[in-house]
Each structure stands twice: as C-alpha cells, then as structure tokens.
C-alpha cells in the first residue's frame, strides 16, 4: 500500500511538471509566432512606400525625350541663306522654269552614225569636236527636234576631281552652234549668248561682276558664271573657278540674259540662225 502511494505521487508530480514546463512554453511559442507574423505584415506594408526609386529589380528610369534631328539643308537652300538681295534670290531655281538634270554621259554621247558605233564620254571628256548642248540634248539628239529652250534650263552634275599636279585644271569652252564635221545629221541652231554657271546648286543663276568671291560662297565669282556666245572657264582645285575635290557640282546652262532677271518667255536664240524656230537653239561645248 505504501509502495502504491509513492507511485501515484510520482505520477502526479510528473503531470504537474509537464503542465508547468510544457504548457506555458507552447503559449509562448504561439505568441512569438503571432508577433513574427505581425512584423512581416508591417514590413510588407512599409515596403509599398514610394521612395522615388524603381521598385522592380533591373528596371531603369525612362530617359528624357531627345529633340528631333534636323534635316540637312539642300545645297540650294544653303546658298539662299547666304543671299540677301531679293533679285538674286529670284535667280536661284527661278520660278516658271523647268529644271532638266542630265548626266554628263547622256549629254556627251555621240549617237551611232555613218556606220560608226555610239560613243559615250565620261566626265571630264567630250567629243573631239565641239558638241551641241541645248534643244539638241532635250530633243533626244534628234536633228529635227522642235524642243524650245524657253522656260527651261539644263543642269549637268559632276563630282570635282583631285589633281596630282598643283597646276592642273579643267578647261570648259563654248562656241556658237555650227555644223559638225563627220556628223551631217546635225543642223546648227545658234544663240546670241548662253549663261553658264558652276555651282553646288542645280539652278543657281545668280549674277556678279566681282572676281573675288564672298566668304563661304566660292562659286559666286565671274570665273564661275558667264554670259557669252563664245567663252571659256578654267576650273578645279587649282582653277580660277575653284571646286573642292570630292564635292558635287552642277554645270548650269540657260539660254537667257540673266542680268535683268530671268523671264521664262525669253530666250537668247539667234533669230537669224539656220531654220530659226522661236526658242530652239544650242551652244557648242568642248572640255579638256
């Protein structure tokens, strides 16, 4: 009986210790878990505060919009910006005129004739004799062309070349239209003058009486623009008319007197010329 009492006492003691040491720690763990959960929720709430910085890893701020790139000015518009005189501005791509840009090779191609094959001359060559440029050119080199040069001009593009010699330059010559030896199909239609210019602008017919050019406008000189029935120009990097190697230029040709303005109804064609037709005329050009 005494032994059984001792056993019961020990069992009760164990139960009491378990209640004290295990029951209370369970409540403590549950409380700690609740605190941790509350802290995590609080941290999450704090994490939503906008700090002004990107919240998504790897993202960057959107760059500020850049101004659009400006379109480069055309050569003719660049020249307009350098020209103050309204009368001179009117001579740049003149109103009422048709511009005909014709390649060097097309201008200086001799059609097949008299059993001879067609021959094309690249820049800066030309047929051995003077070659007609004007109505003959725009009329497809038809000797019976009726094409008038009224209200029309021709612009022949070329790239200025680089000379090895410091004294080398090109020579451009023109004369009144005459018959061509060995090419009897051509019928000459002369003019009393043709205005020829060299410029970076197709259709730059500004005039000047000055030999010296203004700063930044190298072709505005009498050496690069002349009205004559017969004359010449020396041009190139060493010429009187200065061209920059690698730069694009145009040989501009109009059959009209430019010094009092250009009227598309006028021409400088010679009314006493062979088989005269109003506005039909050529100039004869050779180069070397």
SSE layout and pairings?
Layout: H1 2-47, H2 75-81, H3 86-89, E1 98-101, H4 104-107, E2 109-110, E3 119-120, E4 131-134, H5 135-138, E5 152-159, E6 170-176, E7 194-199, E8 225-228, E9 231-236, E10 241-242, E11 248-254, E12 282-287
Parallel strand pairs: 1-5, 9-10
Antiparallel strand pairs: 2-3, 4-12, 5-11, 6-9, 6-12, 7-8, 7-11
Q: Care to give the gist of this entry?
A:
This protein is α+β, with helices and mostly antiparallel strands and 288 residues long. The protein has helices at residues 2-47, 75-81, 86-89, 104-107, 135-138; strands at 98-101, 109-110, 119-120, 131-134, 152-159, 170-176, 194-199, 225-228, 231-236, 241-242, 248-254, 282-287. It has one domain (84-287).
Structure notes:
The protein has about 290 residues and is α+β, with helices and mostly antiparallel strands. The chain has one domain (about 85-285). The chain is about 25% helix and about 20% strand. It contains five helices and twelve strands. It has helices at about 1-45, 75-80, 85-90, 105, 135-140; strands at about 100, 110, 120, 130-135, 150-160, 170-175, 195-200, 225-230, 230-235, 240, 250-255, 280-285. The strands form three sheets. A five-stranded mixed beta sheet has the order 1-5-11-7-8, with no helix packed on it. Strands 4-12-6-9-10 form a five-stranded mixed beta sheet. The longest helix is centred in the first third of the chain and has 46 residues, at about 1-45. The protein is globular, with a radius of gyration of 45 Å. The N and C termini lie far apart (about 145 Å).
